[in-house]
């Protein structure tokens, strides 16, 4: 009598675990901005807005280091192990931030936490898309990346409830809770089938593929084809630096820089800027909550639409929504319009960044797609360094919150313009190389 086959495991398990990892990322990134109004008045630290902005860039500098080292590390230890280590690392960094007794230690703690965050995000994206249904990969990825906004919502709620009565350190101390994810991930998060196959662990790879209902023979054949292509032509970053891929790569890097200026600048400074405009601390933190809600809406809705009408149109609309909202925020608005503008800034900021992953991937050949995404997102974090520091410099110069919002709106406008150029640039090289999957 034939043995009944067990039901394949669902990729939703992978989605949920990667989502929770990104929640930790979002919480840690947003908690600094939520706590900043109180950190600026920490006794003995003598922080200026400019110095506070630089501390924000230290976290993002660590994130860039994490992004750059994530690729080589995943090749050596695998995506699953790197995520396990990363979750523990992020929690330890949060605890060190909470215990820091001077600016130097606090800045170091923020940098180290950024390294942990940067190391887990690429693996979370790769595993989610690998185990997602083939026709829902962008949607799964978009839903997973809403974890950033959910983490930001949690940070904002914690600040609203705790900051009026407690020290800012308690917000960072709460970050250690994410270490509880590690044992769950240890037992439930699978390794990449592609990684196992590349390491020659065929038995494990085949068993895992069958458990999740994937065609291992097709995966192995695709991997073998990519290895043959790699042996006959330049691959990875070397190929991207040659014609006809260099110009699209540069354009996408600049687009990524633009969106990161908006996302990380706002997440660092939104409460302080709203406080600067005369709103009470509690109201300013509520605005942060709405900003994160907008990011979640933009990520899910944008990814859903990108699967249907293409990434280019969606990214363009999201950039325009973000720019218009930021220009509106530079003025004093009634409560209803103010909330709508903040929601739009979140949709056009974090939402754009989520869809951009798929947009970049769809414009490069399969063999070089990982390298393209890594280069664009890694170099794009230059914007994450510039955004927080730029707003701090503007406030130090006495130009006020209005010019800070202008400084975020301008990159959004530039990004929208550059998106219109991508189809023109990619059309000129389609006869030379592999066609893009979806560009419009």
Summarize the model shown.
The chain has 440 residues and is an all-alpha fold. It is built from 17 helices and no strands.
Q: What low-confidence regions span 5 or more consecutive residues with pLDDT below 50? A: 431-440
Number-wise, the strands total 0
Order of helices and strands: HHHHHHHHHHHHHHHHH
Number of helices: 17
Structural overview:
It is globular and about 60 Å long. The protein has 17 helices and no strands. The longest helix is centred in the middle third of the chain and has 31 residues, at 246-276. It has one domain (11-191, 233-427): Growth Hormone, Chain: A (Up-down Bundle), CATH 1.20.1250. It has helices at residues 11-39, 49-77, 79-99, 103-131, 137-162, 169-173, 181-188, 193-198, 202-211, 216-232, 236-240, 246-276, 281-309, 311-329, 335-361, 369-396, 400-427. It is mainly α and 440 residues long. It is a multi-pass membrane protein.
Q: What are the main properties of this structure?
A:
MFS_dom, MFS_trans_sf, single chain, 0% strand, Growth Hormone, Chain: A, Aromatic acid/H+ symport family MFS transporter, 440 residues, disordered C terminus, mainly alpha
């Amino acid at each position: 009598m034939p043995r009944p086959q067990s039901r394949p495991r669902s990729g939703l398990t992978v989605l949920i675990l990667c989502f929770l990892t990104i929640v930790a990322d979002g919480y840690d990134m947003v908690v600094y901005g939520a706590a900043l109004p109180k950190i600026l008045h920490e006794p003995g630290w003598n922080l200026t807005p400019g110095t506070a902005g630089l501390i924000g860039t230290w976290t993002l500098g660590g994130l860039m280091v994490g992004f750059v080292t994530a690729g080589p590390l995943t090749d050596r230890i695998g995506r699953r192990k790197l995520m396990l280590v990363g979750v523990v690392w992020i929690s330890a960094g949060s605890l060190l931030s909470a215990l820091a007794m001077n600016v130097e230690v606090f800045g170091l703690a923020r940098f180290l936490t950024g390294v942990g965050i940067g190391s887990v995000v690429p693996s979370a994206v790769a595993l989610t898309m690998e185990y997602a249904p083939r026709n829902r990969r962008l949607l799964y990825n978009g839903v997973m990346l809403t974890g950033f906004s959910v983490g930001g919502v949690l940070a904002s709620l914690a600040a609203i409830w705790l900051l009026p009565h407690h020290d800012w350190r308690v917000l960072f101390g709460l970050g250690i809770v994410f270490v509880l994810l590690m044992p769950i991930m240890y037992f439930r998060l699978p390794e990449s089938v592609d990684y196992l196959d590349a390491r020659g662990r065929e038995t494990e790879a085949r068993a895992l593929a069958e458990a999740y209902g994937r065609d291992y023979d097709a995966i192995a054949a695709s991997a073998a084809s990519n290895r043959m292509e790699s042996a006959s032509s330049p691959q990875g970053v070397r190929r991207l630096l040659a014609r006809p891929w260099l110009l699209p790569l540069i354009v996408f890097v600049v687009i990524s820089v633009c969106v990161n200026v908006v996302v990380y600048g706002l997440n660092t400074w939104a409460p302080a800027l709203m406080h600067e405009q005369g709103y009470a601390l509690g109201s300013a933190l509520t605005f942060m909550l709405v900003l994160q809600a907008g990011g979640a809406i933009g990520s899910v809705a944008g990814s859903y639409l990108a699967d249907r009408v293409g990434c280019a149109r969606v990214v363009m609309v999201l950039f325009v929504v973000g720019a218009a909202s930021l220009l509106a925020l530079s003025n004093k608005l009634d409560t209803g319009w103010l909330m709508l503008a903040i929601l739009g800034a979140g949709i056009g900021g974090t939402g754009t960044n989520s869809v951009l992953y798929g947009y970049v991937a769809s414009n490069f050949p399969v063999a070089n797609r990982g390298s393209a995404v890594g280069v664009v997102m890694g170099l794009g974090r230059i914007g994450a360094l510039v955004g927080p520091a730029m707003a701090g410099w503007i406030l130090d110069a006495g130009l006020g919150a209005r010019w800070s919002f202008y400084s975020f709106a301008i990159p959004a406008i530039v990004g929208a313009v550059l998106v219109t150029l991508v189809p023109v640039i990619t059309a000129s090289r389609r006869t030379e190389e592999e066609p893009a999957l979806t560009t419009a």
